[in-house]
Amino acid sequence: MVEKDLRGRRALITGASSGIGRKTAEEFAARGADVAVASRREDVLKELAETLENEADIEALAVEMDVTDETQVARGVSSIVDAFGGLDIVVNNAGIGCGGPITQVSTEEYRSVMSVNVDGMFFVTRETMPHLLDSEGALLFVGSTSGRYPRPDYPIYAASKWWTRGFALSIAGQAGEDGVAVTLINPGTTRTDFGSSFRASNTEKYDAGEALDPKDVAETIAFAAKQEAPTTISELAVTMRDSLSNT
Ligand SMILES: NC(=O)c1ccc[n+]([C@@H]2O[C@H](COP(=O)([O-])OP(=O)(O)OC[C@H]3O[C@@H](n4cnc5c(N)ncnc54)[C@H](OP(=O)(O)O)[C@@H]3O)[C@@H](O)[C@H]2O)c1
């Protein structure tokens, strides 16, 4: 039985239709939080929201929100605040990748990664910050170990995650003194659909036990989200134990 340590908290999770975001929504709901699950695939989100409400005594809201579109982000956040009466936790999770030799990266691939991983995190942070300031809530960013080390196979993706780290830690400096808890979570390779747009997905590439399970990351996010004022966890890495053996 999971402890209901997020009971009554109102959370938004971006990129919640799949992988780490989906497991985080499940973890938050099990711990008693009301959850707004957001991404582009509304049908998947509706099914997820229904399952979460059936399995836990919480409210769940499916919100179609392309994070690259500031109008959709504004509309989505406003609908969540109307429904929940405010926001206590925001997980900036939606993200995509691209890879390969730099000579073969198309402008379109480059722009897609930057618009989801960089613009998206900016739009969601700007739009939700007034509500987090009201509630003295928690803002969590899903970065990556790729945001801490050079990644010869994924330079654009890695650079976008270095941006996430710089942004998250700077926002912590700005909003921390107003009582907002900011956390950067850096997962290592995780078995999700990640990568399927440019190579085999991580679930196809790695067997269970060869990479993190998204639930491991979700539990880490929940651990950071439940911290009470005046404490926050500023940055956490969650990795396989041998992750530093081959860097
Ligand atoms: N898997 C890993 O190895 C790993 C390691 C470190 C960090 N991360 C990070 O973890 C985060 C989640 O990735 P994941 O591994 O869970 O991948 P995933 O299973 O592919 O999930 C990605 C999520 O992002 C959403 N998304 C993509 N474009 C979007 C857009 N324009 N607007 C809104 N949502 C969008 C997708 O939903 P829709 O398609 O429904 O929009 C999906 O829910 C990303 O930030 C990723 O960089 C992953």
UniProtKB/TrEMBL annotation:
UniProt keyword annotation of RNA-binding present: no
Lineage: superkingdom: Archaea
Stored Pfam families: adh_short (PF00106)
MF annotations from Gene Ontology: oxidoreductase activity
Record keywords: Oxidoreductase
UniProt xrefs under InterPro entries: KR_dom, NAD(P)-bd_dom_sf, SDR_fam
Domain Ketoreductase per the UniProt entry, residue ranges: 9-217
Protein family membership: Belongs to the short-chain dehydrogenases/reductases (SDR) family.
Record-given protein name: SDR family oxidoreductase
